Amino acid sequence: MPRGFTTRERDRIRQSLLDTGRDLFVRQGLRKTALEELVAPAGVAKSSFYQFFDSKEALYLQLMLDEAGEVRTRVIDQALLSTDDTREGLRRFLHVTLKVLETNPLWRRLVTHPDEMAAVATRLDPRRTESLSDQNPATALTAYVAERHRRGELVGDSPEAVIGVLQSVLVVPFGAAHIAAGDTRVYRASLDLLVDIVATGLTARPEHRV
Fold first, then answer.
1. What is the C-alpha to C-alpha distance for residues 156 and 105, in angstroms, rounded to an integer?
2. Do the domains at 1-53 and 67-208 have one common CATH topology?
3. Phi and psi at residue 10, to the nearest 5°
4. Domain 67-208 has what CATH class?
5. pLDDT tens string for the chain (210 positions)?
């Protein structure tokens, strides 16, 4: 039977599990991360892990929840919704989201490995994953695009197609080394131009709106 821990010990162990999980999930992914690797830095047995989290998936979800609110604030509230102009809102959203993906390796991992979030969803109580959905920037973006598309402010056959185009821009940085022969200055200029082209191309001219 796992031994009990003092409040201070519990706080230390929980933080260690979160820090170690974040590092390992980013570097090698959910599936390849073993329970032994998660508990080793905390200096506890594998059985003690379950006093803190029900599973690796629960730890992964907690990491996402801890950051989701801040990310949503940055890319949705302070960017996408910071203006009534749809074109400018999309431009701001893309620029800020690209910055988040450059500086937040956990969210970058989520974008490049959506299968991991799907694995989390299948293993956990739906009520737990709903808490992430409420804070997930993708949920807010989907609602925004659907509404603006309905109003005739976005082109394309469907909101899903618009989302697909935006997602295409967000994966460009993962091939940065192959763009402009690795020239950072040219790459940045190219990315800025791409954002402007996409934001302009997705937004219908006023005279074309329904």
1. 32
2. no
3. -60, -40
4. mainly alpha
5. 456 789 999 999 999 999 999 999 999 999 999 999 999 999 999 999 999 999 999 999 889 888 888 999 999 999 999 999 999 999 999 999 999 998 999 888 887 787 887 778 777 677 766 666 677 888 899 999 999 999 999 999 999 999 999 999 998 888 877 887 778 899 999 999 999 999 999 997 655 444
Give pTM, 2 decimals: 0.81
d(CA 91, CA 87): 6
Helix (H) or strand (E) holding 176: none
Q: Provide the CATH number for the domain formed by 1-53 in this structure.
A: 1.10.10.60
Burial 29-45 (b: 16+ CB within 10 A, else e): ebeebeeeebbeebebe
Residue type, position 205, single letter? R
CA–CA separation, 1 vs 80, rounded Å? 51
Q: Amino acid identity of 122?
A: T
Most distant CA pair in the chain, distance = 71
C-alpha–C-alpha distance, residues 133 and 150, integer Å: 22
Q: Where are the domains of the chain?
A: 1-53, 67-208
CA-based end-to-end distance of the chain: 67
Distance CA 36, CA 159 (A): 44
